[in-house]
Amino acid sequence: MNALKDKLPPLGTLGPVIALLMACAFFATQSDRFLTGQNLSLVLQQVMVVGVIAIGQTLIILTAGIDLSCGMVMALGSVVMTKFATELGMPPALAVLCGIAVTTLFGLANGLLVTRIKLPPFIVTLGTLNIAFAITQLYSQSQTITDLPELMTGLGNTFTIGGTEVAWGVVAMLGLYLVAWFALRETARGRHVYAVGNSPEATRLTGIPTQRILLGVYVLAGFFYGIAALLSVARTGVGDPNAGQTENLDAITAVVLGGTSLFGGRGVILGSLVGALIVGVFRNGLTLMGVSSVYQILVTGILVILAVAADQLSHKASR
Amino acid sequence: MNALKDKLPPLGTLGPVIALLMACAFFATQSDRFLTGQNLSLVLQQVMVVGVIAIGQTLIILTAGIDLSCGMVMALGSVVMTKFATELGMPPALAVLCGIAVTTLFGLANGLLVTRIKLPPFIVTLGTLNIAFAITQLYSQSQTITDLPELMTGLGNTFTIGGTEVAWGVVAMLGLYLVAWFALRETARGRHVYAVGNSPEATRLTGIPTQRILLGVYVLAGFFYGIAALLSVARTGVGDPNAGQTENLDAITAVVLGGTSLFGGRGVILGSLVGALIVGVFRNGLTLMGVSSVYQILVTGILVILAVAADQLSHKASR
Amino acid sequence: MTASSNTAPLVLQAKGLVKRYGQVTALDGADFELRAGEILAVIGDNGAGKSSLIKALSGAVVPDEGEILLDGQPIHFRSPIDARRAGIETVYQDLAVAPAMTIAENLFLGRELRRPGFMGNVLRMLDKKEMLAQSIARMNDLKVGIRSMTQPVETLSGGQRQCVAVARAAAFAQHVVIMDEPTAALGVKEGNMVLELIRRVRDKGLPVVLISHNMPHVFEVADRIHVARLGKRAAVLNPKKISMSDTVAVMTGAMRAEDIPADCLA
Amino acid sequence: MTASSNTAPLVLQAKGLVKRYGQVTALDGADFELRAGEILAVIGDNGAGKSSLIKALSGAVVPDEGEILLDGQPIHFRSPIDARRAGIETVYQDLAVAPAMTIAENLFLGRELRRPGFMGNVLRMLDKKEMLAQSIARMNDLKVGIRSMTQPVETLSGGQRQCVAVARAAAFAQHVVIMDEPTAALGVKEGNMVLELIRRVRDKGLPVVLISHNMPHVFEVADRIHVARLGKRAAVLNPKKISMSDTVAVMTGAMRAEDIPADCLA
Amino acid sequence: AGEPVIGLITKTETNPFFVKMKEGAAEAAKAKGAKLLTGAGKADGDNAGQVTAMENMIAAGAKTILITPSDSKAIVPAIKKARDKGVLVIALDSPTDPVDGTDALFATDNYKAGVLIGQYAKATMAGKPAKIATLDLLPGHPVGAQRHNGFLQGYGLQSLDAKSNELAKPAEVVCMADSFGDQAKGQTAMENCLQKNPDINVVYTINEPAAAGAYNALKKAGKDKSVLIVSVDGGCQGIKDTAAGKIAATSQQYPLKMAAMGVDAGVEYAKSGKKPSGYTDTGVTLIAAKAVAGVDSKDTTVGTQLCWGKK
Ligand SMILES: Nc1ncnc2c1ncn2[C@@H]1O[C@H](COP(=O)(O)OP(=O)(O)OP(=O)(O)O)[C@@H](O)[C@H]1O
Ligand SMILES: Nc1ncnc2c1ncn2[C@@H]1O[C@H](COP(=O)(O)OP(=O)(O)OP(=O)(O)O)[C@@H](O)[C@H]1O
Ligand SMILES: [Mg+2]
Ligand SMILES: [Mg+2]
Q1: What is the rounded CA–CA span in Å between residue B255 and residue B267?
Q2: Which residues cross the membrane (chains A, B) (predicted)?
Q3: Which candidate, A159, B9, D171, E264, has a CA 20 to 30 Å from the CA of A206?
């Protein structure tokens, strides 16, 4: 068998959820502001951009790839859609579509390099990371794009359910997760994504067009980064050429915390949402506790290890 | 067989060297200052810190792991050794040893978490990355440590061979590469590192203490980060708490550009040196050409892809 | 019913196949002929090029030279997909299963069933229930005592895993079935079940290519025996006429092709 | 020379081994006895727990219950290293080779030879030349036509790969050799070479455990036959007395242990 | 829990300038009986991280937010949301764009800081033709652009205005490279610039660590005496380097003062509901070891008294 994979312990599907609940329980004891609907809604809004990026990232990691370019491609998308809408005066919807088209094209480029020339995804996306960053800076002249039409930031608006404000963008993110989860679980193409990551050669031999699936995954990821760009525009109200710089690592962290194996073929996409939430809850909870920012970093480091270790040890115990 | 690995094309051992030579040839046509002994010596000095970090990183990647903490651990090491030497007034040699001990301890911690609790290296080192960063900032109060004793910066000094200045630190780096190369190639433990990365289960079943080898690799990597810390102190003449922030990605890039597979078990350590040199040559050559920094990033992105693609396509042709 | 005479039409044919891996020449001008309705055994020493031959026939590798004909028409398989489209199903020696996926998923990998109606046509939802039911039926054919079809293949014993691959090929073949050492890891009972299955497939009218090192198995089911040697076809033998020891002699090179009595050739 | 009577001392012994994988009970109180100087065949249906049994005996898995005795002394193998130290060499069914490494490296993995003198003792340099020479000699014993010992194992054919694992175990065993289906992927000639090798190992005085589904092979070399069934030991048979078909009947459960004639038991 | 809660959001954790700012705020908060929350972006330019920190602080009960905007424009909508909830938002160090995005601004003028050292450099060169190397921050960073363009403006070269985020590149600038405000990278950048043009005689650096790196490179090349280095920040280490002649002049800024003023305003707001407004310039002073005719500068003794960081 594929012995390599045995090295990465399969973080059980439930493990990340337990870690998240433990973190929530802990913060609830520390601050009575934590477990309010409003605060939790806030955390959701804070993770929505990384959350949507993590969908694309999960797809790629499931195929045993990795995408370092995700954050920068998202930044490019948000600059393109905002500049098109303001400077070119395009209708907002069209401008958004153009932005998403650009990120999708970047996904296509990544995918073609990976499938046609068979370059390692790490190298390809390291290259496109730099390319997307440079284009973003050049095209925007490093200027933040402001004065956006109302329509573009609509996903940042909130509506009220039972006294709690919910952002439309959060609803969009949750919807995308459900669709991705359904597609990966219940459709043939989704299972093929797992199969390609699990054993590319076996999958090819059963006659599944593995290259086309890989390409599709990269294109789809680019599409999700475009949606993330829209959410980021909606959330901040501007097109920010410096966005996305920390999102690469954040998204990969969310995916791995969510239990998806970096070696491909194993994982549940909803875990990535949980992973993103774990990071968001830490940041929020520690601030509520009044932990100063350097100590927050220290504590985050320790807690990330503890969360996964607790999961791992509980697995061992139950074996 | 381990079909996953077949996905990552083995960048031939010679590929990275060819890419490096191509880059050098290109820059030589663009600037007559490029191919001077002095300039090349400078490039070597500029890559010596990343180069030594990349030795540790290569060891870890050969075992199918990854170390995100390398740069931060190095920064901590340099802060510890410089603070011990200045504030505590320790003899420089002892202070350096203390610094190296700290980085080695971090390696040990990484290794124990990976081998004993069986956490994914990505998560473990993400945690220790944050921890090392926070400790560095707290311990140094984010202040650069200056006025170091002469002895500590000795490796930054140069001597002249045939009219070209060579830094002692570069000699040290080349020496370490040779030792690592020899050990990986010619000793049993070295071959076991490859075996563990290639097929951990098979290696375990042949009765090799895989866990001990993994642990040893992480400890050794920590030791190399300590040496890198010393080199960075020697090069800049200060203990800089903000060092190491880009070294994580730089070191991994050097390793991957050098042809080592992120899936473990395949690669040649000298390739990592070549990979580090490729990055250094790009930066130096593009500055010599007067390319402005955003365009440098753009060009670097394109060239990284082209370099690996050319290698890959030439392989295909020769098959 | 042992069909196939020398006059049955050729279903799959190869002429002068050459496949090189770097220095090693795995196939060195190999010929191959599969006739309608027959079980053709392919035997040969380790490294004789048997797996390489069937990989070329099933599109898993592209031969460097030579041509392949399906039903008399030249055909170029650039990938296993092409071969699958042409109705050729293959059990590869290295099993070609996805270890982390369940038995049912592996059985239907690439040929998943969709739910009827809206759910399947529009939402493209899989019919997991039906696939599970059919998996159980298929695996029961082979009488392997596997408890659950939803366990990952990596938890199966070596023989159980092989049964998954065999069941898959037998279930989905339309035109030709190729099996590379399907009984190698199987127990006596399970091995016999597979032989039985092979006969049933043949009786459905599909020709079967069986690679095996197990001479009793070969002599039990084969209509003709293709002997591979040093990357070539050394001879095609008639198991009804030739003895097992002579067959082994041909295979190992102890008996030259010229010395085989003419009536033993097929 | 077929040694081993019922009175030869017990070398390796296990009592009531239990091993569970989640829901599946792979070993359900299995006993095991290996006597000095004998070849003990272990047979059984797929999934009967043969591989699990020998994994427990070789330290690759730790049994949940039961005890293991080596030369009459209770012993706990926590890892394959412990078993190797005790001189037990094992060929695992899934081969346990490192695919990217060369044949020579795989043969000597974990027992590399160092150069004599300063180079070896101080620099701990490997003696690659000597290992290469010995590799060629070992592999020639098995008469497999492998061209170069420095090619990666992943480029070998299935049978060739198996030969690497067999050659390794035979070369380094000090006390006991265990082989899990060593001939499964082998050709007739190569299979016979392995049987020959097994006999040679036994004649050197080392007892051998041979797991195989190949009844002719089993009857050709085994001194006693351990029949595994449903995670237990169903019987130990004497191949000189019992027929092949009765053996298969015991294995599949068609013949109950009580019904076996007493003189057929070993 | 009646104590006022004040949030301070810096650009990064690591820059000593912000670390000092946090210290100043913490001291002032302690003195005034306020609770201080601190946060930062993950990296310079990380707007989303600052937005998140601000939201979390408000959730934690902060009524006053002090922020050094990483991105002067991008942060504005988020600040507006906060102010709509009645939170007092004060920009420290650098303004938002538009300036009235926050209630008040306690800041230095980075452009002016650049102008001062530009003027100083020009006067020191006394008409000698300049070959300038600029070691800038990182692509797309407004502070980097303001200091860079201000420097060129002060030197009397073709430049861009204070609002531009692009870096001007007149002919006299023979090499531009990014230092990321980091000593090791500043050194590498300077080395490469010297390879490109060994005749460089003026070096502008984004901050003092970069200047120290540039000095190292120049010293190794034997040019430390003949090349003029100017910088911005006025940290104690930087002043030391100025006194030692490594740096010719630096524009000093006052993070402690900004932070203390911000905390005071926050406490006042909590007590009386009175909001500060407008721009308070916390000042920038040119510190130089050697004064030159026609440019107003203070010597390093003054600089040391006023400097931030470890004296
Ligand atoms: N990918 C490869 N790279 C290099 N050599 C290969 C590769 N695949 C097969 N070979 C070589 O080609 C020859 C034929 O291999 P093949 O697998 O076809 O043999 P086989 O007849 O199937 O043997 P077996 O009975 O052992 O399965 C062998 O010598 C083998 O080493
Ligand atoms: N890692 C595992 N996880 C779960 N179940 C396992 C695992 N390994 C073995 N099993 C189960 O244990 C039972 C015994 O397996 P084992 O491999 O010992 O059988 P075997 O007798 O060697 O069969 P074969 O002849 O097919 O190799 C099987 O039902 C198998 O599915
Ligand atoms: Mg084969
Ligand atoms: Mg078995």
Answers
A1: 9
A2: 12-29, 49-81, 93-114, 121-139, 159-184, 213-234, 254-279, 286-310
A3: B9
Establish whether residue C245 lines the binding site of ligand 2, counting it when its CB lies within 6 angstroms of any ligand atom.
no
With a Cβ cut-off of 6 Å, ligand 1 is lined by C 21, 24, 26, 44, 46-52, 93; D 155-160, 185, 187
- pLDDT band at residue B319, thresholds of 50, 70 and 90? very low
How distant is the Cα of C236 from the closest Cα of chain D, in angstroms? Answer: 18
C-beta atoms of C83 and A207 within 8 A: yes
Tell me if the bond preceding E98 is cis, omega within 30° of 0: yes
Residue A70 and residue A221 in contact, taking contact as beta carbons nearer than 8 Å: yes
Please state whether B139 falls in left (phi above 0), alpha (psi between -120 and 50) or beta.
Answer: alpha
Question: What is the three-class DSSP state of C101?
Answer: coil
Instruction: Work out the number of other CB atoms within 10 angstroms of the CB of residue A154.
Output: 13
> What span, in angstroms and rounded, lies between the C-alpha atoms of E151 and E153?
5
Tokens representing E14 are 């690591």
Residues of E in contact with B31 (CB under 8 A): 196
Q: Which residues contact A298 (CB under 8 A, 6 or more apart)?
A: B130, B131, B134, B135, B138
Task: Write the pLDDT tens digit of every residue in C106-117.
Answer: 889 888 888 888
- All residues of chain B having their beta carbon less than 8 Å from the beta carbon of residue D109 are 191-192, 195, 203, 206, 208
pLDDT reading at A221 higher than 50: yes
Query: What are the CA-CA distances from residue A114 to residues A63, A110, A130, B262 (Å)?
Result: 11, 6, 17, 15
Provide the edge-to-edge strand list for the sheet that holds C208-211: C88-91, C176-180, C208-211, C39-43, C224-229, C232-237
- Report whether A13 contacts A139 (CB < 8 A): no
Count how many Cα atoms sit within 13 Å of the Cα of residue D44 in the half-sphere of its side chain.
Answer: 30
- C-alpha C227/C-alpha C216 separation (Å) is 15
CA A299 to chain centre: 23
The beta strands (E) that lie in chain B are given as 158-161, 164-167
Q: What is the CATH number of the domain that holds D75?
A: 3.40.50.300
In a domain, D2, yes or no: no
Q: Answer for the pair E73, A238: CB distance below 8 angstroms, yes or no.
A: yes
Instruction: Read off the pTM.
Output: 0.86
- Do the beta carbons of residue C90 and residue C54 sit within 8 Å? yes
Residue C85 lies in a domain: yes
Query: pLDDT at position A5, please?
Result: 37
CATH 1.10.3470 fits A37-314, yes or no: yes
Check CB contact of B284 with chain E, cutoff 8 Å: yes
Please give the helix or strand (H or E) that residue B235 lies within, else none: helix B210-236
pLDDT at position D6 is: 67
Specify if D110 maps to a domain. Answer: yes
Average pLDDT of the segment spanning A219-239: 94
- Long-range CB contacts (< 8 A, 24+ apart) of E46-49? E46/A242, E46/A245, E46/A246, E46/E11, E46/E70, E47/A236, E47/A240, E47/A242, E47/A243, E47/E71, E47/E74, E47/E75, E48/A49, E48/A232, E48/A235, E48/A236, E48/A240, E48/A243, E48/A246, E49/A246
pLDDT of A149 over the 50 cut: yes
> What is the pLDDT at residue B314?
66
Number of structural domains (chain C) is 1
Whole-angstrom Cα Rg for chain D: 19
pLDDT of residue C3: 41
> Which of C21, C47, C160 lies closest to D46 in CB terms?
C160
**Are the CB atoms for C182 and C42 separated by under 8 Å?**
no
The CA-CA-CA angle for residues D209, D210, D211, to 5°, reads 120
Give CA torsion, residues A69, A71, A77, A83, to 10 deg.
-120
More confident residue, A313 or E163: E163
How far is residue A64's CA from residue A25's CA, in Å, rounded to a whole number? Answer: 34
Position A8 scores a pLDDT of 38
ipTM greater than 0.90: no
Structural domain boundaries, residue D42: 10-264
Distance CA E36, CA A291 (A): 10
